[in-house]
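Re-run with default settings, no changes from the original entry. Doing this only to confirm the output is reproducible before filing.
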Amino acid sequence: MGPRLLILVPLLISLVIARRSLEKALLNVYLPVLLCFPVYEFLKLPNLPFLTFSETAVLPIGILLIVRKRREWRFTRMDFWMLLFGISSCATYFLHVPNPTVGTYNLISWLLMFFFPYAIGKLLIEQDDLRTKVMKRFVILLAFVALGCVFEYRMGVDPFHDFWHRLIPPEGPVSGLDHTQVEQVRWGFTRAAGPYAGSEAAGMVYIFGMIFAYALYKNQQWERKFRWKFHPFQQGTLLLLITTIGLFVTQARGAYLGVALGYVIARIASAKNIKKASIYTALFLEFVAVPSYKALSSYASVSSSSVDDDRGDAVYRAIMIQNYLPVMEAGGPFGWVEFPVIDGQTSIDNEYLFVGLTQGYVGAIAFSLLIVESFLAVFRSLRRTQNQEDIVFIFCVAGGIAGMALCIGTVFVSSPVSELLFLLIGWSQSVRCTETSEQQLAPVASSGVFQYRRVFT
């Protein structure tokens, strides 16, 4: 086991800090581990599933959060969809596998990867006034990751993977990624993956980074300058630029589309008439969606053996959907323990389809409703605010959810994207309205014993 015990270090640090402050544990342990530590290194302990750095980091936070704030939990329709999603994640194993251990492992994984991030978003961030701090920490960490991704993009070597491979050497076929893996190349450059499982996962992480960076930039919540002032950029502009570069070097086209959709929705907040801008945006997206769907269908309607790699990916996904929809229907309400492989297509590059195969149509419906419900929840919060900063944040969250909903239709979702998505889903329910500038600047009545009146003579 040896060096792999390092995976328990975040658990110990998180436990010590979370006992005093859940907020500091979130900002100083969970987010850095989630965004900067590898997702492909695992630790196997007796009677427990494989654990990653982020899963050990969230365990104390999640347990203490539920214990301390259980009375603040307000049950909503979203919680019911979350419960269904959790049941579907392990039901097929309990129903069809004699040994309940596998089902128990899946239930534990659901708690660590989905439920605890969801609870953090629902109970901690808005209630403890951490909105801006979480977004800033998120963007700064991804700016750091972007520097390594740029090196990987140009040099073809992932510095994160190289560092962790030296620190925790592989011990077997499930001990981590093979250091000799072939880097993916597109348009003549390496597709940057950073500390994540692949370039597609890295691109999806940067959807969140771009949305948060844009919200902070629009609300002018950064200091004007860094401590060093040899560049002409403001801090918010520079960090938005760095996260944009981080997204670009992943060369993840699904993430590009997700960010474009998220930006279109986020821009509504800048309009003078929000209602009209929302209607025009919806009409514009509908106008774009119909011809785009027809063009994509035509683009993916040829044989994958007669096209280049880029077009072959689209053809693969189109054939995959045709092949596996009947398999998903045959899996019933809770899916397959091991679904049959059709035409050698072992990679299910569509999260909705993958959930339908592994968790049945109960899981697929619950997952889809979670996304739809979170999208509606942030817009309901618009009724309770007139503060422009809140409006910008709400539309950015809506854009992030919509962008992710589009992107995961083209790729399988892995850690840390799953944790971030469910953190945002939980966050969408708890958006609180801050005071308007008029309220903040309102004079405070004097509490003195004597009151004086100014008289001009």
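The two ends are 88 Å apart (CA to CA). Residues 282 and 445 are 46 Å apart (CA to CA).
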